[in-house]
Amino acid sequence: MTRIDAHHHVWDLSVRDQPWTAELPLLRRSFDLDELTPELAQAGIDRTVLVQTIVDDAETPELLALAAANSVIAGVVGWVDLESTDVADALAALRARPGGAALVGIRHQVQGEPNPAWLEQPDVLRGLAAVGDAGLAYDLLVTADQLPAAITAARSLPDVRFVLDHAGNPDIAHGQLDPWRSHIAALASLPNVAVKLSGLTTRASHQWTVAELKPFVDVLLNSFGTSRIMFGSDWPVSLLAASYADTIAAAAQLVEGVSSAERDEVFGSTAAAWYGLSTDDATDAGEAGAQPGNGP
């Protein structure tokens, strides 16, 4: 089975600032693929999905070019202005660029939008429909209070594949299962929604344990089932809480009660199916790290 990390980032501060890192000293530097690939090889990860980090037209073409130069990147989740009237044209233009075939999804920093109902706006729904019409998935990056709007959007657009990033950012540090649990159940009732087993350690307490994460992951497993759950490291943001090795080890422990086939879904086949990833040309992560172009 091709093992896939369905969520990681790279950025180069000499090219573009990442203002959200200003108060996070550990992340206030550049991170490139050369730094990640040894970690992938050590963890037995074959391919990855590279995800946008900032609302900027210039970032996605750079990520696509990086994918074109590095076969370890199976897909890119980029950004377009969903409120624009020409979303379809913007997506077509991205696909026409070098590496454009790697575009598998779109994401927006909805968590930074002051309007908790941003996803329900008619212009946004029109943009989301264009994403679906292009055969792409849409990554939902939301806060807990934006989950109701995410439910509305996913219910309104049954032909769009949605992927909930970081399990919807539950308050793990305070053990607050509700109302997050009911929102997860509502999303899971929609067959066009999947979820990422990602970003959980950074939502937990400083001295987090697998036991602290387990009640939340059990909700995901019971609601979505492994066929709609995919592992994502959220590297390098995950470094705020754990090394890459510890992040993937925790995920493995959290799903150790499922069958071997179900683990294969979490660590590969769900991401491949949901994003439409090609695994035919999968290259060993260590070899990919030696290729040129390892920078956004």
- In the CATH hierarchy, what is the architecture at level 2? Alpha-Beta Barrel
Structural class, by secondary structure, is alpha/beta
Helix-strand string: EHEHEHEHEHEHEHEHHH
Helix content: 25-40%
CATH topology category name: TIM Barrel
The backbone outline, from C-alpha atoms, is globular
**Number of structural domains:** 1
Any low-confidence stretches, pLDDT <50, length ≥5?
Answer: 281-296
Q: Write out the CATH superfamily name.
A: Metal-dependent hydrolases
How many extended strands?
Answer: 8
- The span between the termini is 28 Å
Strand order within the widest beta sheet: 1-2-3-4-5-6-7-8
Strand content: 5-15%
For the record, what CATH class applies? Answer: Alpha Beta
- Total number of helices: 10
